[in-house]
Amino acid sequence: MHRFKYIGRSLFCEKVKVSDIAAKVGTPLYVYSRNTLLDHYAKIKEAFASVSPLICFSVKSNSNLSVLRALVKAGAGVDIVSGGELYRAKLAGAPPERVVYAGVGKRRDEIMDAIRYGILFFNVESEEELTLVNACAASLGKKVNVAVRINPDVDVSTHDYIKTGKGQTKFGVNFDTAKRIFRSSWKYRNIAIRGVHIHIGSQILNPQPFRRAIKKVLGFLDKNSLLVEYLNIGGGMGVVYSLEKPQTATGFAGKILPLVRKSNLKLILEPGRFIAANSGILVTMVLFRKKNGQKRFIIVDGAMNDLIRPSLYEAYHEILPVTKPRRRASVARYDIVGPVCETGDFLAKNRKMTEPASGDLLAVMGSGAYGYSMSSNYNSRPRAAEVIVDGNKFFVVKKRETYGDLVRGETIR
Ligand SMILES: *Cc1c(COP(=O)(O)O)cnc(C)c1O
């Protein structure tokens, strides 16, 4: 459930008219509903309440400081994948004991910063990384907690680019390597291996692959008599973009909890999309309409640099008018495309909709996760503004970039 609803002909975010925000802030524009974010977080928290898990919001899905702050204040931790995300986590006030840090390519400076901050865990993804974390910890005279990220080699039905738990992907270590790491843990004097971590992919609609992966990992611990305290099952819970029928948080928990309870391990989850996707929209303005042969195009001011999911994953996003037209004007199929000079620059293809007029606003739904956080300056386009709505108020929480921002740090010589 999200809080983007029509009242009369106007799309509202909570109690604020989206067109009012756009009139004030301009387009393209991201709008987030604070209370939807908090609802989604609460849903997972309640579903798993019986084991009091640590829920670490995946910062890469939406890195906006106000979004992070809202969730951290509600009790969430954060799942980070870079030094930059650590920096954001600190600014958002995430307590170190609620920060976990994954990623296959952590640099020494990033590791040092995270140790200094005192994060709960590194989710280590290779033996060489373990050696480096150990050396960093030694140089700071600290003992550091890690979880071993295991690649459980389970397939999931999602887009190839967002599968992360197949044997052939770069993530985690296989069971043989994990075994070697546990067996040689004495070598890493400044490290305590306190958990296992999996993250098998994203936009996964049913709990079966999670169950398979968890069973494999628990079986591995059991068979080798390995003792750890934490089981981190990552993120990946799917959401509704159009006709998907994903598990609910309660349905998901119902399938996962029996396994977790039996293991007696403390549970960590790292949801990103589940919390953020349907908590945000991208608002864009229609610039032109045109026809090339039989093909009809609606050209809008938002583009692949603002929201790359359609171009990158062929992802589907529902597109709604911010103000519904009075009468049914002509309905046809359109490609909704941006100004970027790439054939792959589209927000929707072959979409049946009422023809909008130039100047109309469109809402690209479900854009709160992997939207702004994946945006770029390609074609020297300043990044969009971000707004957060709380009840009947809205706040610009990231100013639209200026041309000056585009060249910051550049010199001519
Ligand atoms: C991206 C990522 C997540 C979040 O995935 P979602 O599909 O957005 O829930 C969680 N954990 C790790 C390690 C990730 O890389």
Task: Summarize the structure in words.
With about 425 residues, the protein is of the alpha/beta class. Helix content is about 30%, strand content about 25%. It has twelve helices and 20 strands. Strands 4, 13, 14, 15, 16, 17, 18, 19 and 20 form a nine-stranded mixed β-sheet that branches. It has an eight-stranded parallel beta barrel with strand order 5-6-7-8-9-10-11-12, surrounded by five helices. A three-stranded antiparallel β-sheet has the order 1-2-3. α2 packs across α9 and α8 runs parallel beside α9 (about 250-265). The longest helix is centred in the middle third of the chain and has 16 residues, at about 210-225. It binds pyridoxal-5'-phosphate (PLP).
Based on Cα principal axes, name the global outline: globular
In the CATH scheme, the class of the largest domain would be: Alpha Beta
Please tally the helical runs, counting DSSP H or I stretches of 4 or more residues: 12
CATH architecture of the largest domain: Alpha-Beta Barrel
Question: What share of the residues does DSSP label as strand, in percent?
Answer: 25-35%
Overall SS class: alpha/beta
Largest sheet: 9 strands, mixed
Mean pLDDT: 96
Write the layout of secondary structure elements.
Elements: E1 4-7, E2 10-13, E3 16-17, H1 18-25, E4 29-33, H2 34-47, E5 54-58, H3 65-73, E6 77-80, H4 83-91, E7 99-101, H5 108-117, E8 121-124, H6 127-139, E9 144-149, H7 175-183, E10 191-197, H8 208-223, E11 230-232, H9 249-263, E12 266-269, H10 273-276, E13 280-292, E14 295-300, H11 309-313, E15 319-321, E16 331-337, E17 346-354, E18 361-364, E19 385-390, E20 393-398, H12 403-406
Parallel strand pairs: 4-19, 5-6, 5-12, 6-7, 7-8, 8-9, 9-10, 10-11, 11-12, 14-16
Antiparallel strand pairs: 1-2, 2-3, 4-13, 13-14, 13-18, 15-18, 16-17, 19-20
The protein binds pyridoxal-5'-phosphate.
